[in-house]
Amino acid sequence: MALKRPSFLPSLDELEQQAQSRSSQRGRPGSHFDHPTAKALFVAVLAVTVIAHVVGGIVFLVLGH
Fold this sequence. Notes:
By secondary structure, this protein is mainly α. It has a domain at 37-65. Helix content is 65%, strand content 0%. The chain is elongated and about 80 Å long. The N and C termini lie far apart (82 Å).
């Protein structure tokens, strides 16, 4: 007895067509972020890292001598 695919699920042909259309769509040139939250998080972490290194360098110079 073969199981029938539920009607609410897309067929394999539909899934393949969706995958091809997604792969043909490219993001903006130079953009590596598809999600704005990911970009914001990356920028925030990058800023905190740079600030921490600058503050650490200043502390190292002041207390190192």
